[in-house]
Amino acid sequence: AAEGAAGRAVALSVEALALWQGPAASGITAEVRGHPLLAALDREHLAAVKESADLALGADAADLVLPALRSAAAANPLDEPLLSRLVLALTAAGHRSEALEVYEGARIRLTDGLGISPGAELLAAQAVAAGRKPREAAPPAGGPAPDGPSGRTGYTAPSPAQLPPDLPVFTGRRTEMAEVLARLPGAGQDTSTVLISAIGGMAGIGKTTLAVHWAHQVADRFPDGQLYVNLRGFDPTGPAMTPGEAVRGFLDALGVPPRHIPNGLDAQAALYRSLLAGRRVLVLLDNAAGTDQIRPLLPGSPGCLTIVTSRNQMHGLLAAYGAHALSLRPLDVDEAREFLARRLGDGRVSDAPGAVAEIAERCAGLPLALACVAARVALSPDVPLSVVADELRETRESLEGFAGGEVSTDVGAVFSWSCRAISPAAARLFRVLGLQAGPDISATAAASLVGLPLRETWPLLTELTQVQLIGEHAPGQYVLHDLLRAYSRELALAQDSQDGRRAALHRLLDHYAHAAHAADLLLAPHLDPISPAPPRPGATLETFSSAERALDWLTAEYPALLLAVDVAVRNGFDTHACQLAWALEAFFDRRGHWHDWATVQRAALGAALRTGLPAMEARALRALARVEGRLGRHDETRTHLERALRLFTGLGDDIGRGNTHRSLGWTAEQLGDLRGALRHNQQALELLRSRKDRPAWASVLASVAWYHALLGEYDLAFSHCRTALPVLREYGDRYGEAAAWHSIGYIHQQVGRHTRALGGYGNALELYQELGVPYMEAQTLTDLGDVHSALGDSEAARAAWREALSLLNGLEHPDAGKVSARLAPGGEAHRG
């Protein structure tokens, strides 16, 4: 009976849809069609189509609703919930090929037209059409995408697989493996506790290797993913990774768009734990400095396993979280023999038991040192192991301060012996790699350090990889174990002159500064140029074919770039520190990394002051003022900007003056002084017009239009927007284009053309989302909510306001209170 009722419901709904004759008031002028009552009829029809599709899918009658779905999808080609239902209905009706074509067409339109990827609902429908099981977290076809744990919509947590490769020749550690495996419940069993295991021991003892091997052994028990991070807890050349950096990396791996990642550590950790709630995820925290560093990274719900490696004993972790501790010891002679046999063959090892014992002694039983020996010996198959033992006995180098007592001497001997197996050029590269800021480095950055062309650096990197002095964890990305990096740094200090070491750092910072500047020119062509000095000979430069490629590079190198600013400051490269910080401004702003931005700009201001150059101080003050404004510190912002303006005026720098006036205008707006905001932007416009800087002039013209609009001067504002838009498009300034569209939306909203306002705001929102500018995205969503409310669509209004509030809360921005007021009972009265 229930099936019959469902079938009748489908039939009636399809019959009703057949009465629809097309868009309301079709053939009438656009002004009439834009009336709220007529627009509401179109929305009501679209909702009816979706409801009918849900009924048909539930009643196994998808073929009945296909005509209405196809017609509605043709009229609404970017409506993802509608397209998701069409894909599912086509699949259910046996038209799988057409379903996949519909998805692909939608994906291309979203990607090429709006610069965004398909959402979770459409991806889930495509998975069904392709014969795959959709992710459990994907929303059902019968309803909208559910709010995530943080209240954000539009992304589904994927199942990350970040574990480094397991070692194919892993051997030994049977007792330790049995101990850690016994900690886990059997496959298929549940656990009511959060499992944490801490693996400790000295450098080179094999903590990471064991942890990674264990993680791979049990990965199938954690089907929701495996997360990994090297926390750089004992980095010899720079600070450990901050908890904020680590948790942001995990949020990215869990599918959180950058614009949705909060900047406060507590908020980041809360979002991270929320995403792991109810999921079975393995988290490997490698090379931790201490409990405080890893506390925000610990999952909060049962079902997850956290593995921590550290040289420290982690008493705080054991006491506060009941972690299981495992302290690794050096390998004994039998284990060392097995270790070498797996790499060199049983025959070769069995023939020289005395040599194997001496090698194990010289390597102090450390797997890292034994691996270096094995790699070297494997390249010389005719050399007896007794000769290897003799050479190790004769070559002792210091590694004082990184391992202890006689161990440091013997490990140094092993590393020096490995260095003897490589060419002088590769040995020089190994030494300068120890000067870098972190454990990871790209091939282009390595080429800059050593001062050779990339084509000559590749073979040297391969040479170092073959003897396991470095590892290649991704194509073109290399890593040094911190013990080896400490040793390479010792060699550099002992064998290379201070001038040579400084020249290597200079080339590396040139590489980062010029690449960041090239990327910045594509992201923000309207900003005044930085003009870094010509790079030193030997620095390898990056080039980018598009803003997207530039953004990819900045995202991939972001941790290294932050460390590079610190290296520049600590080594007296103050100009590099400033220029790197300024080149990252657009990236910081668009990704919402405001607290990182503030930290870097404060360091840059200190560096600028040390140069004693007014131009550097002025630029640094303005850069710091911009981020202080984003954080709502408007009094500090104004003080810094007024000082910067005086300096730029004294220097006769019209572009600097113009951009500072623009920042002062934004600050005046935030303080409620709209006339002052307009006046500052008009001054900026004149200064930039006189310098014939068309990209900057068009960007400021869009700002002038905005302030005219805020002051009710709508015709003038609209005229300025129409003048600015073509120039902004010509120079690829999508940020400025978004601002102009936002102003157009606002103008239409204020004069009552609400449907047109939706178009203007919609264009702005698409661009801001594509660019990753969370504050402006939130502002535009708030305005869209206001327009939907004016059109009588309370549901759409509240959805937009909720998304805006989520973004503002993530940014810890005071505007969140204004949006909360809109969402409160009777809150629509707070609009405006």
Explain what this protein looks like in three dimensions.
The protein has 832 residues and is mainly alpha-helical. It folds into five domains: 2-129, Alpha Horseshoe (Serine Threonine Protein Phosphatase 5, Tetratricopeptide repeat); 174-327, P-loop containing nucleotide triphosphate hydrolases (Rossmann fold); 333-419, no CATH class; 424-496, Arc Repressor Mutant, subunit A, CATH 1.10.10.10; 601-830, Alpha Horseshoe (Serine Threonine Protein Phosphatase 5, Tetratricopeptide repeat). 64% of the residues lie in helices and 4% in strands. It is built from 39 helices and eight strands. A five-stranded parallel β-sheet has the order 2-3-4-1-5, with helices on both faces. A three-stranded antiparallel β-sheet has the order 6-8-7. Helix 12 (291-294) links the parallel strand 3 and strand 4 (305-310). Helix 33 (694-710) packs parallel to helix 35 (734-750). The longest helix has 26 residues, at 498-523. It is globular. The model is unreliable at 29-36, 135-155 and 397-409 (pLDDT under 50).
